[in-house]
Amino acid sequence: TTAEARPKTLPTSALAERAAVVLRDNDTGSLVTASPKLYPHMWSWDAAFIAIGLAQLDIGRAVAELDTLLAAQWSDGMIPHIVFTSATGYFPGPDRWGTDAAPQRPRHVRTSGICQPPVHAIAIRRIVDVARRTSRVDAALAEGFAARVWQRLYRWHRWIIRYRIVDASGLVAIVHGWESGMDNSPRWDEPYSRVVPGTNLPPYARLDVLRVDDPAERPSDDDYDRYLWLIEQLRGVNYEPEAVVNTSDFLVADTFATALFALASDVLAELGEELACDRDQVAELRQWAARARRAVALSCRPDTGMAADRDIRYGNWIATPTLAGFSPLLCGGAGDRAEAALLSTLDGPDWSGHPDLFAAVVPSVSPCARRFDQRRYWRGPQWPVLAWLFSWAFARRGWTAQAARLREQGLRLTADGSFGEYYEPFTGSPLGSTNQSWTAAVVLDWLA
Ligand code: 9YW
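# (alpha-D-glucopyranosyloxy)acetic acid complex -> structure
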């Protein structure tokens, strides 16, 4: 039945062609929306991965994508998690976010008021590397762009250091599950269970559930009440970054965001050296990276070796088995033995080596975990974009065989050309949106 449930496998050339069509179809001219119907706006970390895919088609278009995102950077340095287009059909839109009164907001465009994981330096690194292989003109274009926006990226990383390292763990704090990029991950169950929506939560109607085949692929209504309640809290302090951290009922140290911050800070420092940027700022980035790496290593649980998040409000570690537990493999710092053990856990039967998986791609939650839910969003399905992230990081760390295997298995998962947002791990069926831009983008990069 598994084989029956599975659409055909496209030949590589047809798959690449289809992926390119998805990016073109989702392109509004100045930005590529995250997906055609479900997400008709620009999302921060999506834009980074989308730019990586665009680099395979047109370096100029890849650069323009990141320019659109960076032009929406807030004056304090934050890169907002959504840059809104004029499209309706997504909730919560700009009116519900109510960022218009925040003094740090950009003037030319409306945005949300929170952020997402800082993967943007990684995108710039990849675009520069790809461009250097295509032509001298492309290389000059990409390097010129990197030099031009380097300061903006530095200010973004400084914003995280200033406002989001708030407890002794040294991990990057988030004030909303959406900031993690993994909205309803079981990582956040406990912290969310303590968020109690007020009776004055303004009424709303969800639109996301209307755009997928089955509401069971999306977060629950209770989840959404909490997501919306946190927006009310953020609005209540007009998105002032210190007040946000002091007042949000959800304040969690995110080990995965921290690992990405460490990795991206190193990448940004390295680019800064290549492009002869400010030496003191390069040195600061190196320091920030080292501190973040240490924090991720210290978050590892002694029994499993997996990295954990920390509920800052309530002072407890959250050791739910999700793919965020493998964060140290992205940024290093845990030590060779710990990393070897973690790598074998990753390949083992509780994770990518689970015998019933359609493709050996790390699922968002271990299929052996109590809270595993094979169809529901960040609670079990496989996300090709995360497989790409791990494969890129592994290649950078010199783990060539592991990187190649992730690429091969990621392509197995996505070979039907539907470019699902996420995939059911046992059948490999696409779930959520189809023609999801970042899925198409990483496939294009894999096929290059
Ligand atoms: C939402 C766009 C975004 C991703 C997130 C993912 C989802 C949006 O889609 O969140 O409204 O649920 O969780 O990581 O950036 O692809």
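# post-check
The chain has a mean pLDDT of 97.
Residues 34, 39, 43, 45-46, 181, 183 surround (alpha-D-glucopyranosyloxy)acetic acid (CB under 6 Å).
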